[in-house]
Amino acid sequence: MTAVSTPFVAPSTAGAQARLPLVTVRDLRVRYAPDAPLVLDGVDLDLHPGEMVALLGASGSGKSTLMKTLTGFAPISGGTARVGGFDLNNLRRGQLRELRSNVGQVFQQFNLIGRLSVLTNVLAGSLYGAGPLNLLGTFRSEDRKRALELLDRVGIAHKADQEARTLSGGQQQRVAIARALMQRPKLILADEPVASLDPKMSRTVLELLRSIAHQEGIPVLVSLHVLPLALAHSDRIVGLRHGELVVQGATSQLDAAQLAVVYDVDDEEEED
Ligand SMILES: Nc1ncnc2c1ncn2[C@@H]1O[C@H](COP(=O)(O)OP(=O)(O)OP(=O)(O)O)[C@@H](O)[C@H]1O
Ligand SMILES: [Mg+2]
């Protein structure tokens, strides 16, 4: 990505950009096949720089699909979605890779390469969008320095040389976050990043993500299943039910009773 060509950066309007949403979704509809039912149905959503947004919804409500749409992994059937200057409805040739290289992704299962060292896993983040991962072992010294700094930031610099598979889940998730930061992301999407972690580590990881949102000034969208975690660790909450956004507001203005609208009996029966 170059500073001049990227739709993420417009130097002349940098001050004003801080107040503009980075992500703008309007009347978004998604179905996975022409005759399949809508999985997202009329979703409107803005994500602003510097905010940690919790995405709630029962299993199957469309949380992962919404995140996939923002990185071009799910088809848009109607409405619009913009990420930075990228128009997801009309991506030009080569823009998909550029978009994805600017979006840090964090997953429930960490998605590290277990036999490689922690440091190499983080360095892999710097290769995102650079083509096949055949450059392993040829990292620049400044990248190694940055990777170590990021490991220090997430609290596991002392594990840098260990194989990733030997770390605990909480440690692996922090490596995954360091890897995402290595991309210098303009947006972070974390899909159930704490679903495999114990309550204490869940809080640690969510506060880490929130501090990244605030300090880096980027939006962080985090899907969660545990309502109290959303209430304790987000700036804003949005809730999906059956593909529709049924609740949206500042976390400080919401309580568990208001958020119960996200879940209903039918959804609970679908839970695995
Ligand atoms: N690739 C796909 N092809 C067809 N249908 C899909 C695909 N991915 C998801 N779906 C369907 O879309 C709906 C929403 O799925 P999605 O994974 O977005 O839900 P979710 O809210 O992330 O659920 P969970 O909490 O279980 O992760 C489900 O009915 C699912 O079966
Ligand atoms: Mg999901």
From TrEMBL:
InterPro entries: AAA+_ATPase, ABC_transporter-like_ATP-bd, ABC_transporter-like_CS, ABC_transpr_PhnC, MetN_ABC_transporter-like, P-loop_NTPase. CDD domains: ABC_PhnC_transporter (cd03256). Transmembrane segments: none annotated. It comes from the Bacteria. It holds the Pfam family ABC_tran. Keywords: ATP-binding, Cell membrane, Membrane, Nucleotide-binding, Translocase, Transport. One of its GO terms (cellular component) is membrane. Residues 25-267 form the ABC transporter domain. GO terms for molecular function: ABC-type phosphonate transporter activity; ATP binding; ATP hydrolysis activity. SUPFAM superfamilies: P-loop containing nucleoside triphosphate hydrolases. PANTHER family: AMINO ACID IMPORT ATP-BINDING PROTEIN, PHOSPHONATES IMPORT ATP-BINDING PROTEIN PHNC. This is Phosphonates import ATP-binding protein PhnC. It comes from Microbacterium album.
